């Protein structure tokens, strides 16, 4: 199946393409401007992106939205993960803000999870939606050089103590929220 990528994030697009290897993934059209992600849910924001790309290209579009939910922060940054330190924040600024907000919490109080919603929107209005979650905790300091976003401070429960940034892409994709969501999405698309 041919799908057009809705994500403008090159790291995320590469991860998605590596997981959906049975599908032809086309890049997001350059002419498409920024899509405002103003829904208050991950699913809503994923839908906004996929719908905009589907309308522009008249082809099935694939999108996702991901949030990091930290228990000690009442679920923050959640749906605002990419903008936690401000609307134009970089990954480094978001991680710095998170670590500053978490400074008072001890290792047992740093539980968190990554949650991803993946969606394909078709020109006829049909949708296929899948979810992925990975439980873990927030490290005290960044570790590793791989990944992006909060990967350097997220330690998945199943990751042998490594942050996502310390894992190979294959190791991360096997257990990650995005990997789980897109493998589930691929199964649904193949049915």
Summarize the structure.
This protein has one domain (2-190): Maf protein, CATH 3.90.950.10.
Q: Can you walk me through this structure?
A:
The protein is built from five helices and seven strands. With 191 residues, it is of the alpha/beta class. The protein has one domain: Maf protein (Alpha-Beta Complex). Strands 1, 2, 3, 4, 5, 6 and 7 form a seven-stranded mixed sheet that branches. The longest helix has 16 residues.
Throw out a few tags for this protein.
single chain; 191 residues; alpha/beta; Maf protein; 5 helices
Indicate the topology.
Blueprint: E1 2-5, H1 10-19, E2 24-26, H2 42-57, E3 61-70, E4 77-78, H3 91-102, E5 111-121, E6 127-138, E7 154-156, H4 169-175, H5 177-190
Parallel strand pairs: 1-2, 1-3
Antiparallel strand pairs: 3-4, 3-5, 5-6, 6-7
CATH class: Alpha Beta
**What name does CATH use for the topology?**
Maf protein
Arithmetic mean of pLDDT: 93
Question: If you compute it from the alpha carbons, what radius of gyration comes out, rounded to the nearest whole angstrom?
Answer: 16 Å
Please report the total strand number as a whole number. Answer: 7
**Helix/strand-derived class?**
alpha/beta
User: What is the terminal-to-terminal distance?
Assistant: 12 Å
Gross geometry: globular
CATH architecture: Alpha-Beta Complex
The helix/strand order is EHEHEEHEEEHH
Percentage beta strand: 15-25%
State the helical fraction: 25-40%
Question: Biggest β-sheet: count, sense, barrel?
Answer: 7 strands, mixed
- In the predicted model, the low-confidence regions spanning at least 5 consecutive residues are none
**How many domains is the backbone divided into?**
1
Separate helix tally = 5
């Amino acid at each position: 199946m041919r799908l057009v990528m809705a994500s403008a994030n090159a790291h995320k697009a590469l991860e998605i393409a590596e997981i959906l290897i049975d599908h032809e993934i086309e890049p997001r059209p350059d002419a498409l401007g920024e899509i405002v992600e103003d829904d208050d849910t991950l699913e809503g924001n994923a839908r906004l992106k996929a719908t905009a790309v589907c309308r522009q290209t008249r082809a099935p579009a694939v999108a996702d939205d991901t949030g990091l939910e930290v228990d000690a922060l009442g679920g923050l940054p959640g749906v605002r993960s990419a903008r936690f330190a401000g609307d134009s924040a970089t990954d480094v600024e978001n991680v710095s803000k998170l670590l500053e907000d978490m400074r008072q919490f001890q290792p047992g109080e740093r539980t968190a999870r990554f949650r991803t919603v993946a969606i394909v929107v078709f020109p006829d209005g049909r949708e296929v939606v899948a979810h992925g979650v990975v439980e873990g905790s927030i490290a005290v300091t960044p570790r590793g050089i791989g990944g992006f976003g909060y990967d350097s401070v997220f330690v998945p429960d199943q990751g042998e103590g490594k942050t996502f940034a310390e894992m190979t892409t294959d190791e991360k994709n096997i257990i990650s929220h995005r990997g789980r969501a897109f493998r589930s999405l691929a199964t649904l698309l193949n049915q």
